[in-house]
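Recap from last week: sequence in, structure out.
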Amino acid sequence: MGNSYAGQLKTTRFEEVLHNSIEASLRSNNLVPRPIFSQLYLEAEQQLSSLEGSSRVDNEEEEEEGEGGLEPSSPSNSYQLPPPPEGCCTTDGFCQAGKDLRLVSISSEPIEVPAGFLLVGAKSPSLPDHLLVCAVDKRFLPDDHGHNALLGFSGSCVGCGKKGFCYFTEFSSHINLKLSTQPKKQKHLKYHLIRDAQGALVKGPLICWKGSEFRSRQNSINPCSGSLFPPLESSGSLATFPSEPVSGANSNAPVGAQPAGPASDHPSLTTATGPAVFNGKDSPKCQQLVKNNLSAMPRPSALGILSNSGPPKKRHKGWSPDSPSAIDGGFPQAAGNRAKNEGAGVSCMPQAGVAGPASVTFPVVASGEPVSVPENLLKICKAKPVIFKGHGNFPYLCGNLNDVVVSPLLYTCYQNSQSISRAYEQHGTATMQPISQEMQLLLTVYYLVQLAADQVPLMEDLEQIFLRSWRESHLTEIRQYQQAPQQLYPPAPSSTAPVTSAQLPWLAGLAASSCNDSVHVIECAYSLAEGLSEMFRLLIEGKLTKTNYVVIICACRNAAIDSCIAVTGKYQARILSESLLSPAEYQREVHYELVTGKVDSLGAFFSSLCPEGDIDILLDTFHQENQGHVSSLLTASSAKKTAAPDARGAPVCTSYHVEPRGVRPFQLAVAQKLLAHVCSIADSSTQNLDLGSFEKVDFLICIPPSEVTYQQTVLHIWHSGVLLELGLEKEPVTKQRVEQHVLKLDAEAQGKFKAFLQNSFQNPHTLFVLIHDHAHWDLVSSSVHNLYSQSDPSVGLVDRLLNCREVKEAPNIVTLHVTSFPYALQTQHTLISPYNEIHWPVSYSNGVDLYHENKKYFGLSEFIESTLSGHSLPLLRYDSSFEAMVTALGKRFPRLHSAVIRTFVLVQHYAAALMAVSGLPQMKNHTSVETLEITQNLLNSPKQCPCGHGLMVLLRVPCSPLAAVAYERLAHVRARLALEEHFEIILGNPSSGITVGKHFVKQLKMWQKIEDAEWRPQTYLELEGLPCILIFSGMDPHGESLPRSLRYCDLRLINSSCLVRTALEQELGLAAYFVSNEIPLEKGAKNEALESDGEKLSSTDEDEEAGAEVCFEAGCTSEKRSPVRRERTRSHDSASSSLSSRASGSVLCSESLVQPSGPLQGEQARSPPQCGPAEEGRTPGEKQRLPVSQGPPVNSTRSPGLPPQPGYGLRSGQRNPQASAAPSSQLSSSSGSSSTCPVPATGMLVLQASQCSMAKACRQPPIVFLPKLVYDMLMSTDSSGLPKAASLLPSPSVMWTSSFRPLLSKTMTSTEQSLYYRQWTVPRPSHMDYGNRAEGHVDSFHPRRLLLSGPPQIGKTGAYLQFLSILSRMLIRLTEVDVYDEEEINTSLREESDWHYLPLTDPWPDLELFQKMPFDYIIHDPKYEDASLICSHHQSIKSEDRGMPRKPEDLYVRRQTARMRLSKYAAYNTYHHCEQCHQYMGFHSRYQLYESTLHAFAFSYSMLGEEIQLHFIIPKSKEHHFVFSQPGGQLESMRLPLVTDKSHEYIKSPTFTPTTGRHEHGLFNLYHAMDGASHLHVLVVKEYEMAIYKKYWPNHIMLVLPSIFNSAGVGAAHFLIKELCYHNLELERNRQEELGIKPQDIWPFIVISDDSCVMWNAVDVDCTGERSRDFSWSERNVSLKHILQHIEASPNITHYALIGMRKWASKTRGSEVREPFSRCHVHDFIILNVDLTQNVQYNQNRFTCDDVDFNLRVHSAGLLLCRFNRFSVMKKQIAVGGHKSFHITSKVSDSSVAIVPSQYICAPDSKHTFLAAPAQLLLEKFLQYHSHRFFPLSLKNHSHPVLSVDCYLNLGPQISVCYVSSRPHSLNISCSDMTFSGLLLYLCDSFVGANFLKKFHFLKGATLCVICQDRNSLRQTVVRLELEDEWQFRLRDEFQTANAKEDRPLFFLTGRHI
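Predicted structure tokens:
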């Protein structure tokens, strides 16, 4: 309809407002139009007073959609396009004349543009990635300010040339926009099109359709006045909307190659970011600042600085001034340093690791004349100015370029802050403007103004400020977006006028006017060049000495601004310029300064400082005076040696002990978590790890190239015994063998790694665990190595080795990355799945101590907590006098790197301190209190111990050349002071081992009782108790663990100018420690004074000595004294803490603790105060409530500290595999804190004895000295409550995806922190994961790669070695199985027959001989130990022959099992996966999951009286086993082979396995058991279990039983299997008879196997003679294929009805296998002849003993049962499913009473509780346990058994039965001489008649039990069998099973024999 925009303050033309009101009223749903004059005269106060002051809804705003997604916002806005003319083109991107309009297609073609027309780009919803070129009359388009567009439209088609389109609706149809909403030019004409330098048409700036509108009155607010709105959400929550992250604009561009083009078009969305924090000071100060500025300005300007961003426009998408020429310098965003400053001011600096030298000008886009950098700039200014390029064009610099540094970091920050609104647009919400350039610059000035003099600007601070400003200016839109992203609400336009470019210099100058010249604003008329020249002039003239920042603004050209900011403050410029150096450049710079002698000027300066003359001269004088004499000060020992002498009279220290090795609970928990993750990989359906195929575990540990770490790891493995456990070595294990398992990643690593890969390839059944320890080190991509391979072969080594194709593809290599700092492995491109991360567990959960340990870990968060508590001297400190001296020297020597200055100052301090302690007290004034304290304790600690144990001082000097200088200087001073035998100085270099003097080696050997003459310490842990200064060099620690005697960690020289989170935590991790946890926390030594002999060193300032008391506190371990101690500590922070900080900083207390009574054990020793001296101010009650275990207390340590991450630790590897206690720290005073020591209330003699420093080692972590910058970063917290250090860039090898990300939250768990980094970081191009581009998709993760992270020194090495051990045990366990191992029962009751099968070597039974053998009725299977004996006339059974019966619940529990190693012929359950049987299982990678078809198969069976319908589920791959009708595909039969087939390629007999409840655990994988032979295997399942079995066994044939058998027992399955197979046999005979094959030639056998048969064995017999003593045999495991093919090859096999085999037992006697064949019962695994047994059925009702019942039926039918005694089957113990899945419960739901077997029957018609169980099951269970109620005479009366007709029912072990068959011509035992004690008639049929029963004799009083289906048939049976003639019945003798009527109970009648 036309252009719409609102008034622009009171100056807006009346006509425009009138037009807008009319237009809006026409479109408004609201009947009441908004008054014109309220728009025209809108007051600014009204705008600010209300967020939503208007009820007017503007439909136009409702119709706003995201770019490209122009869907209707509501049904009322839907739009129907008119139909296009017939025959015209309707293709998207073409006009109706068929001409291409897409910009990409016609950008280089000449386009005729009519006069007065402009080319613009239109967006089509159907082509979101294309612009359509249109020519539009510019009168109908707005100007740059969004004004002056006429209503209506006039346009032409550039394709076909058609002109005169007067309506946009008509024009949009012509160019085929295909809109679903009302066509509007404001929505669809998006961009101006312009010609680039090559003349091609390209997308230009957005068309600025609307100015700032006031009519909606939904006002945004000043970014600094945060009081109007609270922050939206907690700052820690992650983005709640999916977003496409930016990876930095062209961040992979090489240095200097600055591609033009817009910043990334993929903004990332952050929905929850806390309020901006201005360099450590939260917004109130900023608010005040803005208010002051506002009050000083006239009202229009006040509105002008409110944060409406961008040029005056209401809503558009992605507008960015200068967007065609947006530039990225190819430098990382300054995202690394979110640390902001607080209190005294923490300095921080932009991110380290920026590639490229600092002192070059970058080829940024330049214009105008070049600017000459003046000569001698550095000399005059004492610092190199750092110039940050801002907006617009930057001039060329020429001249003295070495004296300036130019950086694009600020430019990148500005660019990124322009992109945030796109994140909201892409989800379809209304357009929101980015912050305007003017507003960005103004906010930057505000930020610089409020920086303190010792603070450094930080890009993260600016990012947060911009984000908060933008959020608050668009608060309403964001809220609508968050609450209902699916709806389109009218947007709230920015309601304030923007800052104009004309106002900007004035407003900036006004802001800077209040800062005492620290910020100077220069305004230029034409270009930045004049401003830069002016700045250089002022610098040379010395007029900017007080100025830290110069802001240069050029705001003249076309309303766009140019700007840059120069940092001229000496402190800030030095830190910023040094932060731009990469680590390699830093090393080169330092090396250059040392080599060229630049540092000599420093030495000369130090000499001039010392009034006593040059230090070296003083040293020489001292040396000459004391030559041959040790300093008297040091020889006078003031402490008596109180330790007990040993047997030889030598003194013994009771505090020095080696702790027993062992796995701590935490380590075991982590090892188990690792194992669980490996198992979950194996259990997943991806088949990436087949644990079942591995027999053993091997490993290789890759570590960084540090000799100490290498030796430390080798010793750890050696002492852990893991090589023996894994079976890789035998005793004794040599060190050389251990070294085979540790790989130092140096130049020689490739050969060793190649051997490892070769080994893994040659041993596919060994699982190799490749452990990458210290995994955050060297993540450089191998592609970088290809560029630099000549210079350094180790570049990218980790990537080349661990990420090579062989490792990734090897199915038997699992890679485990272990690190304390996993952040660089948690990016969007990581190879490690978040599900494969294992984080070290927290100690506490909800106040419960999860893992009780006697050691408490003391890590970074505990250090910070101890410092913040403020009740005692902190463990983290900085040295203010040292920092002051460094700052002063930095100004004096501007050309020297600050690392050089700091090192030389610190070495000078140590030298002076050593001299002061050694007898030159005048040198105290030339050192700091902190250094003096360290030196005093170092020299005095050996004297307090009878053995001379001392403490270690760690001096961290990252730069190796500087470390060498420090070592030489300190060694020289030590030699001159004659202190060579008092303490050692060790230079720790990663590339070399440890060198220790002979004197100290001798001491160490004596202390550690080492006899080896060649022994030398190889790890720092072996320096336990040695008084020494360890100068620890190397840019990064490499995992070296430090001993318990470490007392001071001097980190004052760490490179504080280029910090990332990993680097900072890594350095602080050197101090991470274990302290004793055995005693209450408040009992730790609160007095941290010097370990001297009671003397005190005088204070630096004499007059302040009197102000400080020196007190001592008894260190007694007695629990009784704790109340006194608490009383004293409560007053600790009152008067005593009021001393001036200078005094306390200078006073040095003395520490001599009382020797505790009894030997001081490590566990007895006091733990430190909580987190250091954190708890002193607690009341006694609070202290008592503190948990005393190893974790941090819940509410104290986690508050200000970094999150308790695996991350917040520093290094992998344990502090000490032998001893994990920590040295106690001396909390001596430091500047800025004060403390005295409480005096004990009792009058004990406190100075009675000295104490070994090792005793204190268990109680307290080391004291850490930090640079002031780092200290402030740790101590100040951001808005989330975390130390600002936690918000730093996590690693130099990654970068943030967006400036607009939420802050880390204090409440985040390790997992949440990992997800945070995975969302918000991407690897740099040099990172090894850079090429892994799938970005979080599951397929981008490597399936066998895990990440273990935990705090440094916490014991990760021990945890993963324990993991290897339990993994090995599990693999062995996986290859083992519990099989039943029970001897055969009733062996003494065998048939007493003279007939045996004597040909002992026959492979098959001889039919004639076999038929003569008698049948053995006795059951020998041990599972029937509780079953009734079956009598035959051959037996003579005594009562005592039967053992004691077992209780029913013991039946399963007590069965004996043996653990057996699975052979290669085992049957497996669903958990087995291997390459060979993937296809068999249906999980082969080349196949889709197998498709199956369901087939019905019906046959009639007269006994059931109905047709039986079964269903087959047949996978496509198994259809060849079946015959289907053609056509139709109906299942006709299952193919059967011929008896005459002799092929050895397949198994003839189909195998049927009935199963229930064992879909996972049933052993249905017969691939290996069949040795790969083709076979037909059918699972027989119940209908309700069909789906679950199908899921687990997709490639198996299923036979599904009818639903009526869902509650049936195994008898039904056996019955249906047999009947089905006989029916199938007849079908196959008929089918193959037509092919000319005789019916008797069709194979009649099937196998019925239990689902727990696991392995099969064969007995090899050696019969050299016929006598038994010549008989020997052995048993071996064979395949099922071997057994079946052997049996199937038996001659005359079709004459056998049933064939089986023995059940395996370990105690099988030779007599059991001597005869090769037996004629007896067969169980578990039978081969059934369905032809011969046609008329013998299984009882389909049976649950138990159905196989015994069937065996007896088969034998009585005259058929042969043959057992092959030389074959045996092993049955696995499976705890689930099978017969155990039947539970008998009450039908009354609320009955909780257990049901006992006596309740399974009841009297008919009684009110007995009915049971939910089949009647047959109740009957069988009742008879098993309570049959003596029916047959009292039969109890233990084996000579008079119960006569059981046609069935075998188990009547319990104490009753014997005699089985007879009523069938004519059946084989029965002779019963003429037997008298029975009872008669059991079970469902007897017509074959049982009265005459048949009269043949048997019964005892008088014998009992009868008749069982029938109902009461009627019960009576009929009694009558038909004439039972009343001989049996007496009573009414009360009638019973039924306890079933309800609908469950068809069984009825029985009992009677007595007359």
